[in-house]
Amino acid sequence: MFVCVCISVDVLPAFSFVSGQLYGQYLKDIKLNDRVVQLEQLSYLEKKNYDQYLSNLLLNGTVVDASMLKGHELDAVHSDEVIVYYNDLPHLDTMLDTVGLIKEHRAAIPRTSYNGLIPFRWNGKRVWLVPNVNKVQDRVATKEDK
């Protein structure tokens, strides 16, 4: 059985766009694609294949400390894939502030994340913010003990 998974851009509804205040500035020039796009080779987006792809990327990435996101310290890393672990949402928010990304969570899950993974480009590297599974399991165990 083929399961279709859709990747879509998440556009937040904002009154200013609906009322037209910012339509001319941001949306006016968007046009429909006039080229034919072949969509037959999308099997890599199936959950099983995509999860394997992500696992390979993360296994080959270089783990760095969150403090390296400041300045140009990532220039010293010789890998294109950089992994930074976060312990909880407040820790993640601090890192998102450092790199200027939006801090928005739904049901304690970061928006734009896939299984807690948040990819972005920083100083020429692809950085993956990854939940520290050990810390998360420790917090769950502590809450269950109470």
Give structural notes.
The chain has a domain at 62-145: N-Acetylglucosaminyltransferase I, Domain 2 (2,3-Dihydroxybiphenyl 1,2-Dioxygenase, domain 1, Roll), CATH 3.10.180.20. Helix content is 32%, strand content 16%. The chain has 5 helices and 6 strands. The strands form 2 sheets. A 4-stranded mixed beta sheet has the order 1-2-6-5. The chain is globular.
How are the SSEs placed, and which strands pair?
Blueprint: H1 15-18, H2 23-26, H3 47-60, E1 62-63, E2 81-86, H4 89-99, E3 105-106, E4 109-110, E5 118-122, E6 125-131, H5 133-145
What is the class of one domain in the CATH system? Alpha Beta
Strand content: 15-25%
Tell me the CATH architecture of one domain.
Answer: Roll
* Main beta-sheet strand count, sense and barrel state: 4 strands, mixed
The secondary structure category is alpha/beta
Strand order of the largest sheet: 1-2-6-5
CATH topology of one domain: 2,3-Dihydroxybiphenyl 1,2-Dioxygenase, domain 1
Radius of gyration: 19 Å
* Fourth CATH level, the homologous superfamily of one domain: N-Acetylglucosaminyltransferase I, Domain 2
Number of helices: 5
Low-confidence runs: 136-146
Residue-averaged pLDDT: 77
Order of secondary-structure elements? HHHEEHEEEEH
**What's the overall geometry?**
globular
Q: What proportion of the residues is helical, as a percent range?
A: 25-40%
Number of strands: 6
Query: Span between N and C termini?
Result: 43 Å
Please give a quick description of this structure.
This protein has 146 residues and is of the alpha/beta class. It has helices at 15-18, 23-26, 47-60, 89-99, 133-145; strands spanning 62-63, 81-86, 105-106, 109-110, 118-122, 125-131.
